[in-house]
Specification:
Elements (H helix, E strand, L loop, with lengths): L5 E2 L5 E2 L4 E5 L1 H9 L7 E5 L4 E10 L3 E11 L6 E7 L3 H14 L3 E5 L6 H24 L7 E2 L8 H4 L4 E5 L19 E6 L7 H9 L3 E3 L8 H15 L13
Parallel strand pairs: 1-4, 7-8, 7-11, 8-9, 10-11, 10-12
Antiparallel strand pairs: 2-3, 3-6, 4-5, 5-6
Helix pairs in contact: 2-3, 2-6
Amino acid sequence: MGLPLFYVAEERIDTRSGYASVEGADARHLSKSLRAGMGDKLTIGDERGTRYLARIETISPETVLLKLLSSRYVQPERPQVVLFQAMAKGPAMDEAVARAAEAGASRLVPFVSKRSPFEAVKKSGNRLERWRTIARESSKVARRPYPLEVREPSRSFDESLMKTVGDCVVLWEEEESRPFENALPDQPPRSIGLVVGPEGGLEAGEVAALRSMGGRAASLGEINLRAESAGSYAIMIVRYRYGLLAPGGQAADG
């Protein structure tokens, strides 16, 4: 396994001179934790799709100077996968964010479900920055050209959220007639939303409301999945379905 990808602000990437710099916590992580040295190669990204292969020229706990060797722009995937994750307990929510980043979700939108724990909802505003940090770090380890974006928590799932995606599938353990694969459209939409409930799942009334907005309820089978893991499994199925697991990225560049 190589060094993880490091996100670098655009102003620290000078393509004209052919140099970039990593500073602060990432520089300390490279120099102290990863024990990187002069001449080592690593990948950096601008968070907007461009990745650079670079070589370490000088390194210290404060700044790492990099020589840019090559670059590659990665097109955004189609469909973009948006995870609508019902608020769950603190550790479970943290894990859901990390797994979504590793699986390749584009956005994660926390929302309040009827079975969301009261304490989790109460503390959600204070945990947003933590979730965003987890998303960024997990995206780095997964070497993603576009890190997972975590949106502000929503007090409920309504039409305004449904309109942000081109298609929407509701993962519901009580669905008996439609398997998940049959809920996915033949051609990839611009984006597809996946709705995942909290511990205990979504209530029937909530699913009925989501159906009235255009969502399709689907089952992931007989295996009982945890709230923090169901979304990431479904994300990988979506990416497989539309050729996004092909070597080198999206099949035939989508």
